Model the fold of this input.
Amino acid sequence: MNKKNFLRGRFEAEADALAKSFTQSVSHDRRLYLEDIAGSVAHARMLAAQGIITREEADLLVGGLERVRAEIEAGDFVWKEDLEDVHMNIESRLTELVGEAGKKLHTGRSRNDQVALDFRLFVSRRLGEWAVLTQELMRALTRQAEKGQEIFLPGYTHLQAAQPVSLAQHLLAYAWMFKRDVERMRDADKRTRVSPLGAAALAGTSHPLDPLRVARDLRLEAVFDNSMDAVSDRDFALEAMFCASLGMAHLSRLCEDIILWANPAFGFVRLPDAYSTSSSIMPQKKNPDVAELARGKTGQVYGALLGLLTTLKGLPMTYNRDLQEDKAAFFMVDDALSGSLRVMAGMAASLDFRAENMRLALAKGYVNATELADYLVSKGIPFRDAHGLTGAAVSLAEKRGVGLEDLPLDDLRAICPAIDEGLYPLLAPETAVRRRTTPGGTGPESVKAQLTRLKHWLA
Ligand code: ARG
Done:
């Protein structure tokens, strides 16, 4: 047989060396080898079941594919750029191993539906892993929240101290965000687990294939409805990348809180040594680089999502080689998200919160002003008026450099005669938290209920 590359039957000339390395994708799409082999095994079995190849040929193919897999996993497989991508590399080696039968594997199939299948299987597997990793992080946060039910700190709006909250409430806010991320990943997975095999190049095939059998074999949920759609859309990858982007957004906000809290101006958390770095010049430094890097990778993930959306938007029907860029983008997102989730779950589990510094922060910033206003409302004063009167009290306390709770009763009564001794206990931060009894609020009943729901969901 002709020694030249088996994809180049119609050409006289060899490919230009730069063009070859420019078009190859095997340097990165070899990550799809497991999915490529699983897809080929299912395809071979279906070909035999349909009488398109013999049982013996199918057995040879399946056995050969298993051997290829073993070679790849043992590091013995020789990947060749000349063979462009993971699909041709595996098929070529398979044919070396099993002879003539190897050449029948691609019957009724195109790399266009093959790559779409491999990629869908891969994206689905990664969505599953992301969900697991996200739940690990949720577990770490939930455990910290359990310990933080009696620890109080200022809750912030505009990064200005607003009202007292429990540490548990603050951490659980993130747990709920991550729960929605997991649900979003599971939902995206349903649309990912659709088999495109049988679409062939773009139009379907004249061979009597059974796409449903392949889908069932691969435990996929459905089969494509339209062959042109099947080989040309990458919405499943984009959806997964959006899930990852939002996951990174949530993670990045958690990182930002940790970075702020580790700053001595807050002092709310002591970074575990194992997750801190130092400076090459300033020996006193303890830097939150791990959280900063996770925050930083968020930009790359958004960039990859936007990049692939842009790649897709100008493509005419059906497959275009531009689509090959989908995998590099997705792998980048996968590495960033999986790596960040893993390391942040470890870090979240070992954060050492400083309740004393949180208490000191509560003493500043008039976080109990709302308590005074609500107290006045309980005395029959309309909220808008109560708001104004409380403002006057804050202004007076500020002038004296004291807290609201330090103002003598006479001074408070000069502002509003409805105030009596009963006000003072209400100004304590723990009381403020305890009195937030509405569902979902920072009160202890709500926090307990949240913990129960989250733990139940995680189990
Ligand atoms: N490596 C290609 C990709 O990732 C596989 C499909 C190639 N199809 C083609 N007609 N050239 O998209």
User: Anything to note?
Assistant: DSSP finds 18 helices and six strands in the chain. The first helix runs from residue 17 to 23. The pocket of arginine is lined by residues 25, 29, 85, 111-112, 115, 319, 321, 323-324 (CB under 6 Å). The chain has three domains: 16-107, 112-149+165-196+224-360, 363-458.
